[in-house]
Amino acid sequence: MTNSTIKEQSLSPGTSGSLQLKTPAKEVEAAQLDERVWMALAAAAEKKAIDTVVLDLREVASFTDYFVIASGANERQVQAISDAVVETLKQSGSPVIRVEGYKTAEWILLDYGDFVMHVFGQQARAFYDLERLWRESRRVELPPEFGNEVNSSLRSES
Question: pTM value?
Answer without folding.
Answer: 0.75
